[in-house]
Specification:
Elements (H helix, E strand, L loop, with lengths): L1 E6 L3 H16 L3 E2 L8 E6 L4 H20 L4 E6 L6 E2 L8 H4 L5 E3 L7 H8 L28 E5 L1 E2 L10 H4 L4 E2 L2 H13 L4 E5 L10 H6 L11 H10 L8 E5 L8 H9 L6 E3 L7 H6 L6 H14 L4 E8 L6 H14 L3 E6 L7 H5 L6 H24 L5 E10 L2 E5 L5 E5 L8 E9 L4 E5 L1
Bound molecules: iron/sulfur cluster (SF4).
Iron/sulfur cluster binds next to helix 5.
Amino acid sequence: MKYLIFTYGCQMNYSDTERMQTYLEALGFKQAKAEKDADMIIFNTCSIRQKGEQRVIGKMIDMIKLRKKNKNLIVVITGCMVRKSSSRYSETRDKLFNRTKEIDIALRIEELPKLADLIKELNPKIKLPKIEEETLEDYFNITPNYTSKSQAFIPISTGCDKFCTYCIVPFSRGREKSRPMADILEECEEFVKQGGLEITLLGQTVDSYGLSTFDKQEGTFKHLPKGKTPFVSLLEQIDKLYSKGLRRLRFTSSHPKDISDDLIKAIGKLKTLMPYIHLPVQAGHNDTLKRMNRPYTCEKFLTIIKKLRKTVPGIAISTDFIVGFSGETEEEFQATYDLFKKEEFDFAYFAQYSERKGTFASKNLKDDVPKKVKRERWHLINELLKTIVAKKLEKFVGKTLDVLVEFEEKGLLHGHSEHSKEVQFKGKKSLIGQIVTVKILKADKWVLEGEKI
Ligand code: SF4
């Protein structure tokens, strides 16, 4: 049988897809090249924005057409849209089954090892091999089928305990749970042994690694030395892999509440930690932050930024903003705009607020900023972003940067510098997967252009 996976959303979903591939291949599935060849089509979904969900539901029209040719086609939805692992014949089913008739299986990604049973429940005639390996019984321990040989995205925690009022993640991914440090280290070590150069640690809020209610109840991190956060202990352990060939360590996303002084020091000190951090602020006014249930003030956020810039001169900082959140006044938006203008973040991901069903905001806060106003505010921030990004990139012209080459497109090699700037240059495809030195000749809109030296 053949499978095809469509992945949407963040890096966490792409990492989950790599784990899913390993699991499916252990069940005897092979990857299909096109939808028409697949016996099972999986949608690994994102719910952060309404558009993301609509895209997946829209794809169901294609499933109707495909089913006309292949009656036994299995359609699976996993990722953030799913609350309950179930098949169309389960006694209690996920609510997604009410939204479209085309789904056969809804799967919570953390319950990936249940997929085989759900397939059997759906169609007992399908014979699947019994999985013997213990590593395939636990989502975290499934060794992923890495897409790249040089870069790996490794999850260190799942779920979230923060409950920002607009966000669906604590409901879709559940409460925050950290993965045992020994397992993460083993995966990192194995990857580096195979020639891996760059590791990005993933989690909804990586800097609270080992600190969640669940982690405390389990006592998993009790043995760690006092005065150091579990996250920094983890980073220090991974950093030791420098001697085995690891060159770059990154993490995403962090939460301002959990950024500790020892983490800031570690970014300035550890050999492999890159001078880049993604730190979502979401809004530049304390009233908006309060309605969002973001547990920090703008002043606290700015103190962190100041410390980061002092400890790691030249550090690149990106952030997230939401524009047009419930109750956002002109004054509040202006404060967000001013914060972005003053702090000149290297990049910002920003979205117009859209209500997510089931969140606190959808039940208790009116989505009262008119669409037109949201759009205008979005455009204003976007124009500012373009100016700031151009200014930031210009500073690299004439400099030489180490670039990890990731892919080739239209005759140009693309990769990222230590500060996570995208760089493109002419070169042989054989350089993919290597770190090369590039002299920057020009800053284009969002990308640096250079030549290999
Ligand atoms: S920190 Fe807030 S925005 Fe981020 S995943 Fe958790 S609830 Fe969502």
